[in-house]
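Hello again,

I reread your note about wanting to compare the complex against the isolated chains. To keep things tidy I'm splitting this into two emails, and this first one only covers the full assembly. Below are the input lines as submitted, including protein chains and any nucleic acid or small-molecule components. They are followed by the predicted structure of everything together. The single-chain runs will come separately.
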Amino acid sequence: MRSLLRFLIRNYAFLLFLFLEVVSLVLVFNYNSFQKSKFLNSSNYVSAGLYGTVNSVFQYFDLAKVNRQLAEENAALRTQLQMSISNSEFVPDTLGHGIVGSDTTFRFTPARVINNSVNKQQNYITLNKGRKDGIKPDQGILSPQGIVGVITSVSESYSTGLSLLNPRWNVSAKLKKSGFYGSLAWNGEDYQLAELLEIPFHVKLAVGDTIVTSGHSSIFPEGLLIGVVDEYEQPEGENYYDIKVRLATDFKSIRYVEVIDNVKKEELEKLEKNRIDGESTN
Amino acid sequence: MGRVLIKYAILFLVLVLVQVLFLNQVQFSGFANPYIYILFVMLLPVSSPKSVVLISAFLLGLSVDIFSNTLGMHAVATVFIAYLRPLIIRGITNREEDMSDYPGLKQNGIGWFFYYTTLMVVLHHLVLFFIEVYTFTNFLETLYRILLSSVFSIFVIVLSQFIVFRD
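Full-complex prediction:
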């Protein structure tokens, strides 16, 4: 017993080293459960507050570019409005209500990006809106150019999310032309390119084809722009194409985004859960 | 003693802030990112107790992690080099008795400091980047990223010794 004690005291540095490494590795490997914790990610009060302050200074340098983007978005929205009025299938009540197609289940909240990265293996995005603005986990993030990511954790007035540039998250996407859908994933290399998986060989493809959200998940409504096909090939011995998608969103320059709230999400999830429960009892 | 503590506390804060607010936003050829916060671990007095070095390294790594949403990754890498630090210092110092207690550039010469920085930075980046990608596929690409980021980090750390830590 005494020699064990002596051994422990003599090697305390090594044991401390092992202990700290094990603690850190546990943090790394249990990341997803800690994501939900309030304090250990960048939506906590101190780090989000700091990012918010710094960002409020630096945002002035981008005003010209932001203005141009907003103007472009305005123009696009006005075009959409004109088109939908002339189609006269539905008349939107207000623009602020955010109507996509004839589906009024989605509501948009504007937010400012206060921290963002494109050069890590796992990229995250921090926004200046939080629980008190109605932001909840699993809501989609949309930029004027295309989709950005999904909210994962929320504090009182800030929120963080996975960016599309994060292999921990895939988004369901489809080819706008043919309607075939697959999942879109980022491979950790170029921040402008992602891969579209599970598109079978019999689908006709061309460089420049538009990729949009499929609407199969409750995070994004159908038909939001993701990107265009940059190149594709048919690997031998496989059933699916290798498709590289050039992302529509310029992740290096996003400043203002919108968070998408699916108002009927709970209803939908409850319905789908009931169906599964019903099947299992049969 | 009190003054030394305050000095290192300020160094800790400044390095974390510079890292998360400035250097984490710098992108050099797409995916290289300099990590200079390990300068804190490098500059601790040589005679400091191992437990102090290890625990402060853990807290340093964890602080950077919390800001960059990489929980645990920087902590693993920083604790790793904190543990190896005495070995590295012993390995690159020829005459133990000439060694100053403060492992700075001016005290030990630029050649020594450059060696010291290179070893610490490369070991730190090796651990950090491989934990970050989580896999050994694309081994060469990861090595390329490590190399690029290391060159950048070493450059910034050595340069900082000429500009900020002159005395």
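For quick reference: Residues 88-102 of chain A have pLDDT under 50 and may be disordered.

B.
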